[in-house]
Amino acid sequence: MALAERVGPVLKEGRGVLNEFKTFIRRGNVMDLAVGIIIGAAFGRIVSSLVADVLMPPIGYALGNVDFKDLALTIRAAKLNPDGSVADPAIVLGYGKFIQTIIDFLIIAFCVFLMVKVINRIQGPPPPEAPKPPPDDVKLLTEIRDLLKDRTVPNPGPTP
Q: Residue 14, SS3?
């Protein structure tokens, strides 16, 4: 079997996959998702800068010149060689960075909440949904009920 005979079907299948990928990318929700991720990443950096550079310095100052990034608990100090190089690094729990990350998250979540609230207010209330038609069995029972209401029952007279 010649090489062209073996490669031809693979190339055709590859073109089909490429066309399928193009169709997938062109769908609106994929592009919306990509834009949302890019804007979300930029928004996250802005809020992180707001927290680290604007909010945390006054909070640290109010708490006695504490820089949250420097808060850590040393479990084991570093061991040095006689020449001054590090033989065994220190084990440090950087809980200050963790606190900083939690504060970042809370502020980002609050900002996203406010953005969604503003967008919902701008869009206004959703239009009322049209009532759904009742199922067929309910329609049939309603028709039977209406027919029974409209039917005039003859007076049977006295009972013997």
A: helix
E-assigned strands of the chain? 73-76, 79-80, 86-88, 91-93
Sign of dihedral through CA atoms 41, 43, 47, 49? positive
Summarised one tens digit per residue, pLDDT across range 64-111 is 877 777 888 888 888 888 888 888 888 889 888 888 888 878 887 887
Is the C-alpha dihedral spanning 50, 51, 52, 57 positive or negative? positive
Domains and CATH numbers, the chain: 12-126 (1.10.1200.120)
% of the chain exceeding 90 in pLDDT: 0
Tokens of 41: 């990443």
Q: The tokens of 116 are what?
A: 């969604």
* Alpha carbon distance 153, 160 (integer Å): 19
**Contact of 92 with 73, CB cutoff 8 Å:** yes
Q: Which amino acid is at 131?
A: P
Residues 6+ apart with CB under 8 A from 51: 100, 103, 104, 107
> Tokens 């079907």 correspond to what residue?
9
Write down the mean pLDDT value for the chain.
Answer: 80
